[in-house]
Amino acid sequence: MGASRFLAAAVTLSLLAGGCAGDGDQLSRRQPTSTTAPAATSTTVPAPPTSAPPATVPVPAQVVLAPDGLGMVSFGDDGETVLAALAGVLGPPVDDQPLGSCPSGEADRLVQFAELAVLLGGGRFVAWDVGPASGTLPPLATAEGIGVGSSVAELRAAYGERLRLDPDDPFGPVFEITTPPPGRLAGTLTGTGPADTVASLSGGTASCG
Fold first, then answer.
1. Residue 114, C-beta contacts closer than 8 angstroms, at least 6 positions apart
2. Residue 168 or 106, more confident
């Protein structure tokens, strides 16, 4: 598995780039027994400070890291339609730039939604890449539950014989999952031992011409 088999996206990203409650009983009031009894006084006990629960970002079940797209959108779909659909569940992109270093390649535009990079070519969705979590997006994963930070042992359990490891790639240890063409799912690793982890994930094919 050579360097040419991995996304330009992965290289581009590496270069470019989270009281006290009462018992419910009312207190009874006593009538004064004498006109000389001191007037009743009341004390207002301030309510204990409350804090809102931490905001949680719902995991966008529609967004799945897949060999043929991102679940809710597929490779080959119109780029603007893809970006609008993703913005609807992930929020607006944080960056949108032409890939000037790939003037004749399949990918000519990179749009980033935090750690998720979407690559377009000729106005079409051609590839995606996910890097380390930013804390902005909810966890993104494949249908098998694999995402950045998953271990090599988890990769093996999820994909079995479909998993191919290459510790000697020029970009460092990498992996690829055998999928029916034209789909593609691959990524980089911190190493190839069982406890090593996924450093990035990519799907699709985008080359620099």
1. 90, 94, 134, 136, 137
2. 168
